[in-house]
Amino acid sequence: MSINRPERKRGFLTVELVVAMAILLVAVFPLSYDFLRERQLSRACYYRAVAMEIVDGEMEVLQGGEWQAFGEGSQPYSVRAESAANLPAGRFVLTRAGKRLRLEWLPAKRGRGGRVSREVTLP
Q1: How many domains does one find in the chain?
Q2: Structural domain boundaries, residue 29
Q3: Cβ 114 vs Cβ 48: under 8 Å
């Protein structure tokens, strides 16, 4: 049984199409994964930058004398910055131990910018 010419051409075309799709998938899947990972990293960097700005600003206020309103030990700290609404779930914690004052932001989940803290020695 012999195969005529048009059927043979269709077979080669199908093979070429399958090979082209395989090459496309091998190239596109890693790129899409990289874009997704870069988006997550960019968002984590943004969260970290916002948390740093808030912690630095609040620490300046605390150093200005507001630290006296807080007792020794760790306690939740509420911030006044409106940009805190841009942060994911997490909490601010103020720790006063003698002459040392530490303010930190602790995200509720990993991959959300990480822990940000500032520590100062009081006068």
Answers
A1: 1
A2: 5-121
A3: yes
Q: Phi and psi dihedrals of 103, rounded to 5?
A: -120, 130
Chain centroid to CA 45: how far? 5
Q: Supply the pTM of this predicted model.
A: 0.75
Listed residue (16, 93, 4, 11) closest to 51, CA to CA: 93
For the residues of 32-99, what is the DSSP string, one character each?
Answer: HHHHHHHHHHHHHHHHHHHHHHHHHHHHHHHHTTGGGGS-SEEEE-----GGGGGS-SEEEEEEEETT
Q: Which residues contact 112 (CB under 8 A, 6 or more apart)?
A: 44, 47, 88, 89, 90
DSSP secondary structure code for residue 108 in this structure: S
Strand 100-107 relative to strand 116-121, pairing: antiparallel
One digit per residue, pLDDT tens: the chain, 123 residues? 455 566 666 778 888 999 999 998 898 888 888 999 999 999 999 999 999 999 999 999 999 999 989 999 999 999 999 999 999 999 999 999 988 999 999 999 887 788 999 999 988
